[in-house]
Design a protein that fits this description.
289 residues, mainly beta, 8-stranded antiparallel beta sheet, 7-stranded antiparallel beta sheet, 22 strands, 53% strand
């Protein structure tokens, strides 16, 4: 998010694009054959890019994830994202660089399922971000975050609903995960991270509801009992997924962070896949330069 709060960006590199209809229709047998760099900008002139690509477009090395003409590159103490994508439905080029400079890196990870089939790893819970894109007004600085999720089964096979949030604090940041699993169990966890990346337990505020967005996805987050959390910036609103900037209060400190809610009961419905195919074009062939 920009320091002024008016703009934001999300970038996700997928190997095995979990939200791709093409990946589901393929039977999810070869994750490398459905990779993409999903870049979404929020604010005036915001754009959406999510091109599903074949395994010819994927290049992997110790410090580089290449997906088609775009790449994520680790350079010393920072992550640089080199973007060269086409937006949908505007069919406009989105190019430029985004640099994530962590205050520190962590070696922490958390199992989201008891058998370890799903893992969350917050590499850099607190970071600065520099955005320099070809769109007017899209050169800015702000606060950012860098994590990863790994899995060996489809999300909708093991979960029915989850929410996640990351919120900057005076002494670092806090992350919350609330999961509802298909076996009837739940996971509710909150962890704080100091500026040096050290994790520490934090008191979990109670769960409170947020107003539902246009697509009526259920939303709830963590907030002190004396505070009503609310959305301050709409980001992504889909039939099964919502991302937004929300204001909440965590153990006495008011903060604005990025929040998401994912309804996997809706996502596994076959009616949704043709809709997603419109937003996620498939480009199988791409040759490395």
């Amino acid at each position: 998010m920009s320091d002024c709060g008016n703009r934001a960006i999300s970038i996700i590199g997928f190997i095995g694009s979990v939200f791709s209809p093409w990946y589901r229709w393929s039977g999810r047998k070869n994750p490398a054959n459905n990779c993409c760099l999903n870049v979404v900008t929020y604010g005036r002139g915001g754009r959406w890019t999510m091109t599903d690509r074949g395994e010819e477009a994927l290049g992997l090395s110790r410090d580089r994830l290449q997906i088609g003409p775009s790449a994520m590159v680790w350079k010393g103490d920072r992550l640089e994202v080199q973007i060269d994508e086409m937006s949908t439905p505007h069919a406009q080029k989105v190019t430029g660089n985004v640099t994530i400079q962590p205050s520190a890196l962590t070696d922490q990870e958390m199992l989201l399922s008891e058998d370890g089939a799903h893992v969350w790893r917050p590499f850099a819970p607190t970071a600065r971000i520099e955005v320099d894109l070809n769109r007017p007004g899209w050169t800015w600085s702000g606060h950012g975050y860098f994590d990863a999720n790994f899995g060996t089964r489809a999300l909708e096979a093991d979960f029915s609903y989850w929410t996640w949030g990351r919120f900057p604090l005076n002494d670092g940041s806090a992350c919350f995960y609330d999961l509802e699993r298909r076996d009837g169990t739940t996971l509710a966890t909150g962890v704080g991270f100091s500026m040096d990346g050290t994790p520490h337990a934090i008191q979990m505020p109670p769960k409170q509801r947020l107003n539902r967005p246009f697509w009526m996805v259920r939303r709830e987050t963590r907030a002190d009992a004396d505070f009503r959390p609310h959305q301050v910036k709409a980001m992504l609103d889909a039939p099964f997924y919502n991302r937004s900037a929300i204001k909440t209060k965590i153990n006495g400190e008011e903060t604005v962070g990025v929040y998401e809610a994912l309804d996997l009961d809706r996502f596994r419905g076959p009616w949704l896949m043709p809709m997603l195919a419109v937003r996620v074009p498939r480009r199988k062939r791409w040759r490395m330069p």
